[in-house]
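Researcher: I'd like a candidate sequence for this fold, 646 residues long. If you have to choose between options at a position, lean toward the conservative one.
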């Protein structure tokens, strides 16, 4: 059968082949369910369905412009929007909290199997937060830092300490707009209070709290998650690996790790590398064990260990449909409840591991506890035992796999730009000021069964590097680029515009930088902050020629991320809309009015080429304001420039 129909739904041939196989195997995927859900409710889509109290549900129409309580379209849309930001913020922050608790346990010897892996990252973070570290034992420092981080969640009267890592001017903007968050937990509880029946009805006040809540994510929970992950598991440095379904082995035991929290995947990585476990796999007739990731857990272990990526969000079912997966281990977030149904058609076992995230049909196993590595080994052995149940007649692993380079933490970028002892963003700032690089764009977020998977993000990424824009990526967007070959430095360099290419070649960074998982969007803010501190591109995040894009987003987490980018002064382009259009004032504020408060707002642009044009215009406008929009210098990047860059 022609793959062409499937290529309307997905961009990469491996996924198309698996969609075709799914049809042959009579396995339902999210793509069919998307068709079944085609006529989605217009009230839901425009954000004007309210079911916050049980006089409702109320739906706003021209004939019924108010809910039973009298709430209008703006109130309803703003309340719904705020609750979405709460969902996203909570996901990132709870993930961060789990890691902080683990850090505390590791520092007190209560978490065997975990330890402080990157003492340099620990001491750096301690200094950032004003925790005494000089001449102190690493565990003591970690304990104090963990307690400080826990107070970021519980603080009732003061504000988040992490906010102080932002440029001064931005802190002033937050102060003036009244959006400085107290502790994360307080902000979230307050959001739920304010959006319940009969409390906050002024859409402006509700949206203000949505931005406050999002700041508790980007400059709170998510940032803390990234910092603590680096301390416990090591700060990422550039690493080569591979992506797409072809990373699965024909004759290896294939174990997929899917979800978000790195604690479990770290011990599984250790367990799968254990010689005795490898022997066990050989004895079972396999040539070895292939561990590969899906979604952001994939990004976490890719960044730190070079573990290959089997796929992004929309490939989670397709990976099982290869028929070659012995076990899929899931933790939290973005794991479809359909996985056990898909797995039932093959021999794959789905194992859930987080007590807060159970799925009917999945086997639940706790890996934490006294000896996590031992239980992880047992899990891997269980997958090995399942190898004999693989039905060769049902196996079809696509050949497609693309090499990639990932692992660009801010520290790593700094090091590449300036060298270990003089690590600095200077060469990047200079390149922007000299108009070799037009600006920096973060392309982030999910893919979405309502859009052709990975298409928008790939087209946009290619177009932007062509136009001399340095692209930073995280999450499933980064995996999309990996599959398209854009995380191969030589491929991206060949497509990059001249200025960008020369700079990248001189300093040795690729034009598309994979910075990690979705919580690592905090790294994008960190990079933008470093650029401000380096000097020459204004004194606020809003003045840096930078734009954020969420091309194919679907998760509430992406809404929270978008909001904290905007509140941080970075314009955000959305490839598909928020559900707020029914509240006209809400829509107008998010897509315009917010700029008066934050110097940035959202822009809905559903076509990637239009988005590229808009981004170039936005970057040029910022460059004009900075007075750096001289014509690009004609001279080639010569030896003196190269020396200056290093
Ligand atoms: Ni981000 Fe990562 Fe992917 Fe979207 Fe889900 S895995 S946390 S939410 S779908 S990028
Ligand atoms: Fe309807 Fe108001 Fe209740 Fe919402 S809060 S369901 S608009 S009565």
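Model: Candidate sequence:
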């Amino acid at each position: 059968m022609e793959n062409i129909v499937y290529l309307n739904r997905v961009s990469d041939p491996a996924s198309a082949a698996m969609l075709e196989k799914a049809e042959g195997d009579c396995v339902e995927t999210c793509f069919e369910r998307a068709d079944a859900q085609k006529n989605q409710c217009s009230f839901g889509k425009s954000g004007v369905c309210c079911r916050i109290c049980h006089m409702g549900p109320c739906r706003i129409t021209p004939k019924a412009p108010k809910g039973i309580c009298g709430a209008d379209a703006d109130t309803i849309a703003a309340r719904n929007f705020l609750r979405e930001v709460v969902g996203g913020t909570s996901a990132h922050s709870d993930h961060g909290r789990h890691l902080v608790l683990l850090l505390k346990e590791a520092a007190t010897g209560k978490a065997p199997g975990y330890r402080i892996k990157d003492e340099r990252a620990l001491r750096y973070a301690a200094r950032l937060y004003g925790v005494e570290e000089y001449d102190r034992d690493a565990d003591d420092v970690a304990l104090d830092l963990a307690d400080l981080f826990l107070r970021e969640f519980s603080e009732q009267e003061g504000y988040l300490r992490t906010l102080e890592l932002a440029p001064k001017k931005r802190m002033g903007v937050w102060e003036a707009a009244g959006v400085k968050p107290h502790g994360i937990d307080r902000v979230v509880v307050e959001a739920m209070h304010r959006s319940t029946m009969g409390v906050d009805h002024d859409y402006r006040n509700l949206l203000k709290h949505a931005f406050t809540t999002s700041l508790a994510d980007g400059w709170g929970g998510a940032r803390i998650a990234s910092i603590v992950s680096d301390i416990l598991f090591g700060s990422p440095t550039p690493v080569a690996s591979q992506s797409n379904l072809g990373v699965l082995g024909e004759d290896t035991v294939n174990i997929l790790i899917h979800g978000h929290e790195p604690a479990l995947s770290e011990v599984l990585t250790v367990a799968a590398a254990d010689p005795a476990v490898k022997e066990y796999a050989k004895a079972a007739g396999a040539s070895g064990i292939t561990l590969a990731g899906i979604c952001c857990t994939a990004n976490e272990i890719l960044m730190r260990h070079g573990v290959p990526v089997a796929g992004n969000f929309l490939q989670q079912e397709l990976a099982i449909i290869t028929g070659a997966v012995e076990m899929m281990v899931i933790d939290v977030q973005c794991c479809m409840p359909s996985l056990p149904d898909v797995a039932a058609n093959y021999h794959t076992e789905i194992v859930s591991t987080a007590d807060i995230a159970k799925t009917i049909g999945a086997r639940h196993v706790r890996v934490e506890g006294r000896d996590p590595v031992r239980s992880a080994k047992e899990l891997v052995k269980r997958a090995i035992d399942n190898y004999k149940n693989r039905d060769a007649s049902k196996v079809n692993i696509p050949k497609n796999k693309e090499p990639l380079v990932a692992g660009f933490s801010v520290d790593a970028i700094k090091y590449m730009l300036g060298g270990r002892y003089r690590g600095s963003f200077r060469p990047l700032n200079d390149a922007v000021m000299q108009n070799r690089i037009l600006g920096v764009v973060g392309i982030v977020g999910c893919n979405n069964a309502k859009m052709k998977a990975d298409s928008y993000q790939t087209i946009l990424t290619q177009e932007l590097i062509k136009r001399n824009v340095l692209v930073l990526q995280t999450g499933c967007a980064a995996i999309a680029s990996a599959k398209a070959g854009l995380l191969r430095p030589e491929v991206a360099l060949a497509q990059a515009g001249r200025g960008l290419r020369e700079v990248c070649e001189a300093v040795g960074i690729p034009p598309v930088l994979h910075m990690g998982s979705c919580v690592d969007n905090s790294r994008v803010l960190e990079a933008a902050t470093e650029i401000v501190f380096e000097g020459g591109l204004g004194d606020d995040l809003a003045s840096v020629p930078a734009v954020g894009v969420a091309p194919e987003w679907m998760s509430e987490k992406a809404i929270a991320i978008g909001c904290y980018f905007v509140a941080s002064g970075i314009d955000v382009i959305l490839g598909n809309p928020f559900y707020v259009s029914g509240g006209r004032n809400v829509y107008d504020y998010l897509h315009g009015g917010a700029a008066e408060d934050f110097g940035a707002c959202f822009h809905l642009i559903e076509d990637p080429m239009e988005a590229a044009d808009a981004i170039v215009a936005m970057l040029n406008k910022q460059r004009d304001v900075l007075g750096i929009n001289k014509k690009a210098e004609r001279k080639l990047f010569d030896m003196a420039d190269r020396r200056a860059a290093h």
